[in-house]
Amino acid sequence: MSHRPEPRHPRFDFSELPQHWFADAPGLTHVANGLNLIFPHGERFFVRSVKHYLDQLDDPGLENQVRGFFGQEGSHAREHEAFFRRLESQGYDVQSFLGFYTRSARWLEDHFPPALNLAITAAAEHFTASLGEHALTDGILDEAHPVMRDLLRWHAAEEIEHKAVAYDVLMRVHPGYANRMLGLCLGSVLLVGYWVIGSVMLMRQEDMTSDRQRGLRRDLRRQRQGVVRGVFWRAIRSYVRRDFHPMDHDNLHLAEAEIEAMADRLAPTRQAA
């Protein structure tokens, strides 16, 4: 992989973001919010799992890739945490979930061997790049509020840019297939599990009338069909190949086009509370 991930440091203004920012639908909004909630701690875990092996890399090119990856993940975590403050200003309790999530995930990290943590990261990065392509090509964000659409499309593009970094580190230091598959299994369970818990936590804070409950079930069916069936199964089928590599699927042009299209909006601006 020769393309170095370029860290960018935009600021997004969430001060006018409505409560149900995704198609004015509570279900769709909270499914998306649940994923947003797990990003910052997850991305810091990715950085720690790769950084553990940084001194074992004897390839300056790969080390350069890794440092770009660190910079991008740090910017993602910062902007998603700024979004959390908007959720709290709207009356949502997110700290209860975040406390549970960070404590439990950190306990698992501390009890898993470093090679397995890296394998989980490589698998999770494959999922996030797959979700990123879905976001950029399937029109899934067309009904999102503009500021969230910009946040998620920027994030999606950068996930595609650095999709091979953790995997390449894994192949240098612990290339075994069994470890990679265990990372895939655990990464899938943890990603989906925490995502569901976070989304359900937010949904339970809604004042749900009968009509809203029916709408919620409709929204969830829509998301399940598009994301679980359309993205995750394809990602798993490709990842289990013994000769898999993230760059086998050439989609860097999607990231490049998106970053170019968003150039003016990716310039740093003042972050509103």
What does this structure look like?
With about 270 residues, this protein is mainly alpha-helical. The protein has one domain: Heme Oxygenase, Chain A (Up-down Bundle). About 70% of the residues lie in helices and about 0% in strands. The protein is built from nine helices and no strands. It has helices spanning about 25-50, 60-90, 95-110, 115-135, 145-160, 165-175, 175-205, 210-240, 250-260. Helix 1 packs parallel to helix 8 (about 210-240). The chain starts with about 25 loop residues before the first helix and ends in a 12-residue tail after the last helix. Residues about 270-273 have low confidence and may be disordered.
Brief overview, please?
This protein has 9 helices and no strands.
Based on Cα principal axes, name the global outline. globular
Number of domains as seen in the coordinates? 1
Uncertain stretches of 5 or more adjacent residues: 269-273
Determine the fraction of residues in helical runs and give it as a percent range.
55-70%
In angstroms, what separates the terminal alpha carbons?
38 Å
